[in-house]
Structures are given as C-alpha cells and as structure tokens.
Amino acid sequence: MSVEDTDVVIVGGGFAGTAAAAYLSANGMSVVMLEKQERYTDIVRGEWFAPWGMREAQLLGIDEAIAFGGGWEIREWTQWDEVVAPHEAETVDMTHFIPGVGGPLGFPHHQVCESIAQQAAESGAKVVMGAQRCEVTAGPEPQVRYRLGGELHTVRARMIIGATGRGGRVGRQIGVSMRTSVHHWGGGVRVEGLDDWPMDVQAMGTEGERNFMVFPQGDGRARLYINFPTHNKHRYRGEGGVERFLADFELESLPDGGKSVYAAAKPIGPLQVWPSMTLRPEQPIVTEGAVLVGDEAGNADTVLGTGLSCALRDVRIVCDILLNNSDWSPEVFEPYLTEREFRMRRLVFGASVISKLQCEFGPEATERRRRARRIMAENPAAQVLGLLNMVPPEQVPEFGFSEFFVERLFRETA
C-alpha cells in the first residue's frame, strides 16, 4: 500500500473537482484529484453555462480550458411553445447580461472536464484516473483510501473536497443525507447533423407531454433534452429508445415542424434518462477535514440549468477560503455556508416556479402557460425569475422570490 501526503485531496473529477484542482494547484497548493473513470466519456451531464457561471470560470482561470474543450457561445434564446405560432415565439438576446462575458456556453461535458484536468496537471496537481472504491475518513487526520489497478493507496491531507455529484459518495461517508423531491423526469442525448439549425440559438418549449430543449455546441452538434412526466418515465427505455426520443422532436411549435432536428440528428453519444431531483442537505456540508461542493452539496431542479454555474461558485468560495486562511476548521467556512444557503433558497424557489410553468402537462397546464405568457408580455417585470438563467441569484430583484408574487402570477393564470 502506498501512502502520500498532500494539502488537499479532491474526490470527483467532474467540473467542480477539476476546477478546484486547477485553481488550487495554480496558487501553490499540493493537490491530488481522484476520478473513478479511467478516461472521460460522455455519461450525459449538464452542458450549459449561464453567463454568471462563465464569470466564475474566468475568476477561476479555467475559461480558456473550457473554450479549448469545445465551449460554444450561444447568443439567442427562443421560447417556442404550443400556445404560440412559431413566428410569434419570443427571442431573447443573451449577450448583454454580464459585461465581458457574452452569452452562455454549450459544450461537450466530458471533453471540457478532460481539458480542465489537463490544466490542473500542468499546474502541478496529481490527477488519478480510474480511482475506485474511495473510502473517506474525515476528522483531525483526513485521508482517502482508494484502489487503482488492484492496488490499495492512501492519501493523507489537510482537507478533503467532496465533488462526486448527485451520487454523494463523499457526503454519505461523512454523514450527510439529502432530502429529495422529484417533479418530473428528463433525458438527453448528444447529436450531430443539425446543419440547418442556427448554431447561435438555443430552444426551449413545451408541447404535449414534452418540455424540449436544444443547446447547440457548434458545427451541427447539439445536446438535446426532453423533460417529461413521471408517469411516462419508461418511455425512452429499452430497444428503440433513441429513435423514440428523436421522433419526439417532431413538433408543430418549431418553425419547420422540428424537421431540422428529428430528421437530421445522428446520435454521437448515449441516451440517458433520470429523475429531475431537488436535493437539500439535512446536515452541514462542512465537517472537520471535509467540505462538499457542487451537486454533492445539494442542488435545484435541473430545469433551471444552473447546476454547473453553482458548482463553480462553490469551488471559488471554498478554494479562496483555503488559500486565504491557515485555519481550516469548520468555522472558517461559515461564509460559504451562509452564501450557499441564500443562493440555493433562491434557485430552488425559482426552479419550482419554472417547473410548474414549463414541465407540467395537460389542458390546465397549457392554459396556465398561455395566460402567464400574456401577463409577462404585458408586464415584463413578471419575467423576473427568468433572470436566474443569466445573472447571479443575488442580483435578481427580491420581489421575484415572494409567495405573493407567485400567488398573483398563478392566480391570474387560473
């Protein structure tokens, strides 16, 4: 058994883990990052950065790695829907919300993780791919034991950063359980061949029992998502699932009936489906010798699309605390816990409203969307929660998070 010592050991090599490894090592800390995959492959994760998330990437110094891994700027967002004719769908210019950033990015998740991991390694971090069965011990002498190629290894560190995503492999070992709720299900697949789709335009809309999304990645490639009701969670499973998924983009609400998607798309990755869960931690996400970041620390419903942006905000705050303090006791992370609780409270609230508007189905839900669109067209202030996709949660006006606002919005659509 090998034993090594380091300042920080990071368990999980996704966006949060690679970003933390790159940032800490670039600022002089010794870092070991453990990732269970032997190589990065498409396992279908979030592939969209809000403009405020890209600002976090700039502050962490990983924005060039994201671009090198395939980051693609999306400039416009068109909200197609069954309640409006395609030519009447509203289009939003997304390039002006955060100065110096531009629009959000679409990208292949696995390629960008690989790019950031390479930057971390070049900065001096030890990147271990294929690390299996990580056993975490927090407390005054933190350590992680893992297996690599059949051999047992131990890393002793001053701090463990848990960044294993929704699987929560570190959180469970340090005693953090999650309160979960599921509003709907989702699925996604990466495709190429969308040569007739405008690569600077993302789509979102609802038709029938489908909330559909198209996030371009450049050169005719895109990630396609569909959210659907829980009673239909087996729709895309089994033989022919990919074909059924793509066929569901035959949509009257799109300008060409969706032909530029369903008839042209060629899958270049797996199809995955999942329950769209909200996770809220029931215990503190910081303990002696360990701290959780990203989805492992809790998240909002994926319909909001802010998971990766949140992960980078977590990483920046936690890493700055580590870099600026010699004392790494749990008390020093209080600013992180306070900021994160405020941020997640707003994001969970906003996601619940957007899910009710976009990911509920049937005649009543359709009429609710129709009337909500009319209210928002007459009073742009009613669109306030849509800002969560563009600007940091703390910059969204307070009134958007009041029960009175939501009650008024839904009462007027009733």
Counting helices, strands and paired strands, the structural category is alpha+beta
Rg measurement, Å: 21 Å
CATH superfamily of the largest domain: FAD/NAD(P)-binding domain
Q: What is the CA-CA span between the terminal residues?
A: 65 Å
| Number of H- or I-type helical stretches | 11
CATH architecture of the largest domain: 3-Layer(bba) Sandwich
- Count of distinct strands: 19
What fold name stands as the CATH topology of the largest domain? FAD/NAD(P)-binding domain
In the residues, how many domains can be counted? 3
Low-confidence stretches: none
Any descriptors?
eight-stranded mixed β-sheet, alpha+beta, FAD/NAD(P)-binding domain, 31% helix, D-Amino Acid Oxidase, Chain A, domain 2, globular, 414 residues, 11 helices
